[in-house]
Amino acid sequence: MNGAQSLIQTLVNGGVSVCFTNPGTSEMAFVAAVDRVPGMRTILALFEGVATGAADGYARMTGVPACTLLHLGPGLGNGIANLHNARRAHSPLINIVGEHATWHQKYDAPLASDIHALAGNVSGWIGTCTTPHGVPRDAVNALIAARRPPGQVATVIFPGDCMWTESSSPLPAPDLIPPAHVDPATIDHVAVMLRQAQARGEPTALYAGGPAWTAHGQELVSRIGQAVGARVFGHRFSPRGARGVGIAQLTRLAYPIPQAQKQLEGIKHLVMVGVTRPVGFFGYPNLPSELQPADCAMHTLAALNEDVIGALEALADALHAPRTVANRNSFVAPDLPTGDLTIEKIWLSLAAQLPEGAVISDEALTSSLASDDWMSAAAPHDWLAVTGGSIGQGMPVATGAAVACPGRKIINMQADGSAMYTIQSLWTQAREQLDVITVVFNNRKYAILQSEMKAIGLEVGPKAHDMLRLDSPTLDFVSLARGMGVPASRATTQDEFNRALAIGLHETGPRLIEVLT
Amino acid sequence: MNGAQSLIQTLVNGGVSVCFTNPGTSEMAFVAAVDRVPGMRTILALFEGVATGAADGYARMTGVPACTLLHLGPGLGNGIANLHNARRAHSPLINIVGEHATWHQKYDAPLASDIHALAGNVSGWIGTCTTPHGVPRDAVNALIAARRPPGQVATVIFPGDCMWTESSSPLPAPDLIPPAHVDPATIDHVAVMLRQAQARGEPTALYAGGPAWTAHGQELVSRIGQAVGARVFGHRFSPRGARGVGIAQLTRLAYPIPQAQKQLEGIKHLVMVGVTRPVGFFGYPNLPSELQPADCAMHTLAALNEDVIGALEALADALHAPRTVANRNSFVAPDLPTGDLTIEKIWLSLAAQLPEGAVISDEALTSSLASDDWMSAAAPHDWLAVTGGSIGQGMPVATGAAVACPGRKIINMQADGSAMYTIQSLWTQAREQLDVITVVFNNRKYAILQSEMKAIGLEVGPKAHDMLRLDSPTLDFVSLARGMGVPASRATTQDEFNRALAIGLHETGPRLIEVLT
Fold first, then answer.
1. pLDDT digit string (tens) for A315-354?
2. For A253-263, b where at least 16 C-beta lie within 10 A, e where not — what string?
3. Which of A463, B91, B321, B454 ranks highest by number of CB atoms within 10 Å?
4. Please, are residues B275 and B223 in contact by the beta-carbon 8 Å criterion?
5. Judgement on whether residues B363 and B466 belong to the same structural domain of the protein
6. Does residue A506 share a domain with residue A380?
7. A53: confidence class by pLDDT, cuts 50, 70, 90
8. How many CB pairs under 8 A join A and B?
9. What are the start-end ranges of the E strands in A77-203?
């Protein structure tokens, strides 16, 4: 058994069954080995950012790592942006990065570069294989590292000869590190503090992210809030949330700093669970970086690597929180909107038609600012949010979610500018016949940057204005989709959109709807 | 004058007049400043790999750096692959990478990452700006670094507040470091060695790259070869070469190691000029990394950071080399090929129709293996070759070359798989109405990997075979081009190709021709 075969068998033993690939010469032994070792599905991407983003989406939906297969430093480089997002999502993920054969490395051949330095930018753990016999051990270490709570990107660099040379036997699935339990003293401290603040009439708030965004987690946070009269907020950039009818849906902190400050106004104690302190996405002149009031005391109930749900349950018990939740989303039979096409109506049409258990990959950015409200009356669904802010995430994450969840409808709500970073995703969706509907909001501009210019206080002259426009020429996403084998249509009225969406929801397989907004 | 304005003015003073941009929030002050400081043309790309590759193409054609404007770590990450190629091309290039405002960096906001580590993979020099008043000095250091012989990638990280805050005055153009002169003793040593080897009947060869690939450089190498009966070879991956009628065109060392070994068989002395020792692109089982015979002595006439042309002139004088060159390409009135479409006929059609002074960006890979032969009877032209081997180079380099050389026709001979890494280049070509004809060889596979599998000795099973195919679905480059505003057509016969190329050469502006081979 050569190194590549032993690697794949060890990964399969450890529960990894999908590899998103974009290989080159140095990874050919891995590619050949897939025919010799059963159990690893390989999914080809035309660009590495699709592969890494898909692995992120897959991990968010399964909790289990997929692996990627990347070609040397440049291949990893192309995957960096979505690995950055995966890092912020705390997605378990294993990068298999090829390297020149061990004896060839000293020659500084054209494709040689400092892979380790690149990997360091995004990886919680990096391994470098040095002998064929070390391959299965390196694979096991990557499996353990990727699933170290709360999950992280693990990168292993494999020289070509370690892959094609005879290796040692594959290893069994390793024991994983469980999440740490929260000290009962911490639970008590937070419970006492919340009670005392309530007694003194001091406003408090809970701020939740990570596993607290599950339906169960949001319910626990809401019950605790009710028990002590605390406001409850969610982290805007958590990887996966539950939303829709029946969910005790948390309000997310706003993106603009002044709006988030307003939400937290007057709070004297902020309890963080599954999240770090709330900070601005960017720094701005004359605005603080931290969002809470200056005199607000900060308390951590559970960090992301701890048992977040267990801590919430213990706190709810300690506070004798009510069993019923007041703010659960209720069902409002939504009418299909009609008339002129607007962003709001597009979302409301989706809410009205969404099947239960759908998954929404949301990178609509400025076209999604109020989507939590618009989607609250939809059938319960999961949504996958922007995490690290590196755009080009929505389409790959939708691709990976579709691989992870056959039988569930995936909807990718997608901004136009962001779509163009990883537009190659559509080809993989067509090749694998993934059940993804992509809705592209073609507003023909980098709308978010136009508002950021104002937020920084900059004057926008004609050349600057030109740098934020995408209308010369206007992108034609219907042609782009067709070029990659995905059926597509353009909606210019609300009725056209309703109909196109209905068809997409009725059929299976990839489809793109372009809306001019 | 704020930091961004002082930065741009200093760059303009230093001869930088083009910025390939893909900015985000942290770079908005730079974008706004372009309207306040004249002299910097900004060219928007939809993906950072287009911006960095275009800066490489621009530098290859002008010798002068363009700058890029990139958004934090992920933006730089997306640009890494083509910066790798630019590094191998020794292209002078300045990356302006935005960073969070200085006071905001400690909060580890979602987009924070280790930019310096990423930049290290590709940069010969890295600067990090820490105060607004330091901006012009950082810009000057980047100008000096980028043009340090033979040219390199210089990266400067600018926090947002250093850009939008009042800064010090712009600085004038700095003095640049000239290339080092080659020691006359080295010239003498090589001259004596070549003469002695000739006297002893020992085969010798010259191996040339970098500036030796100009028309003048190739002529000097050829004259020296004639003087001492040495074989002459060129480095396969030099950034820019002169080719066509009237050029003393050097034969490049082959990509497959056994073929290159055959070319160098029996050589006892190899003289390197503007190049390092010849090594395999990859390491393979049972093949050496070094291409020259084991008993071949290696001599360096001039390294890339030295005055390569001066050294060749001195050596030619020392050897009293003949003034006339025997192996100059001669004109053979080429007929337009007809009938079935083949790779060879496509190139011969190009050779027959090529206008003098055209520039060819060649990333056709397996469809380009014999292009030096096919293009030798074409009108004299420049060609821009693959340098670092990170695919997705051809279209951005063509884009940058077109910006650098208005009035010259740019032809991008492009493989299909590679095209898809930076296909967004077409939109920038449409937006700027660049005079680029893209010929896409749509062979519906990663052909090069299919041969690499065999070279490594691996058996290709059905799943592996599937990973090297691009025919499910087949990419439709005509639709992709139209989606980005570039007129396009598909040629299925040689006559159709001849005609499409003739139209493209007659008109100006971007155009794509897809050939099914």
1. 999 999 999 888 888 877 678 999 999 999 999 999 999 9
2. bbbbbeebbeb
3. B91
4. no
5. yes
6. yes
7. very high
8. 321
9. 93-99, 125-128, 153-159
Q: What is the mean pLDDT of chain B?
A: 96
Half-sphere exposure of A267 (CA within 13 A, CB side): 26
| β-bridge pairing A381-384 and A240-243 | antiparallel
Are A157 and A30 members of one domain? yes
- Specify the pLDDT at position B326: 81
Contacts of B36 in chain A (CB under 8 A): 461
Residues from chain A that touch B452, judged by Cβ atoms under 8 A, are: 25, 28
Look at chain A and report how many structural domains it folds into.
3
Average pLDDT of the residues in A111-132: 96
Top residue of A97, A104, A454 to mutate, by most chain B CBs within 10 Å, is A104
B-chain residues near A485 (CB < 8 A): 473-476
Q: Smallest Cβ distance to A35: which of B115, B117, B464?
A: B464
CB B168 within 8 A of CB B133: yes
d(CA B486, CA A260): 43
pLDDT for position A330: 85
Do residue B107 and residue A279 have CB atoms under 8 angstroms apart? yes
Dist CA B125 CA B156 (whole Å): 8
Do B226 and B274 reside in the same domain of the chain?
Answer: yes
Mean pLDDT of chain A: 96
Residue B188 phi/psi, 5-degree rounding, is -60, -45
Q: Which residues of chain A make contact with B474, given a CB cutoff of 8 A?
A: 485
Picking from B77, B108, B279, the nearest residue to A81 by CB comes out as B77
Answer yes or no: are the C-beta atoms of A121 and B114 closer than 8 Å: yes
Both tokens assigned to A161: 């000869």
| Residue A359 shares a structural domain with residue A503 | yes
For residue A482, the enclosing domain spans 343-516
Mean pLDDT value of segment A121-149: 97
- Whether B454 is covered by a domain: the verdict is yes
Contact B118 A113 (CB under 8 A): no
pLDDT at A335: 84
Chain A interface test: which of B5, B20, B28 (most A C-beta within 10 Å): B28
Inter-chain touch A32–B464, beta carbons under 8 Å:
yes
Helix (H) or strand (E) holding A9: helix A3-13
**Section A204-229 average pLDDT:** 97
Asked if B480 lies within 8 A of A479 by C-beta distance, the reply is yes
Angstrom distance (rounded) from CA B16 to CA B170 = 14
Last residue of a domain, one of A132, A164, A196: A164
- Residue contact A483–B485, C-beta within 8 A: no
B-interface mutation test, from A84, A153, A161, A470, most B Cβ less than 10 A away: A84
Does a structural domain hold residue B179?
no
Chain-chain contact of B34 with A468 (C-beta, under 8 angstroms): no
- Is A176 a domain residue? no
B74 with A458: Cβ contact below 8 A: no
% of chain A residues with pLDDT over 70: 100
Name which of A462, A474, A482 is nearest B35 (Cβ-Cβ): A462
A479–B475: do the CB atoms touch at under 8 Å? no
Here the CATH number for the domain that contains residue A351 is 3.40.50.970
Contact B164 A456 (CB under 8 A): yes
- CA torsion sign for A170, A63, A76, B117 is negative
Q: What is residue A132's predicted lDDT score, i.e. its pLDDT?
A: 97
Q: Determine how β-strand A381-384 pairs with β-strand A359-363.
A: parallel
DSSP A218-278: HHHHHHHHHHHT-EEEE-TT-SEEEESTT--PPEEPPSSHHHHHHHTTT-SEEEEESS---
In a domain, B330, yes or no: no
Distance CA A513, CA A491 (A): 7
Query: Is B160's CB within 8 Å of A456's CB?
Result: yes
Do residue A32 and residue B237 have CB atoms under 8 angstroms apart?
no
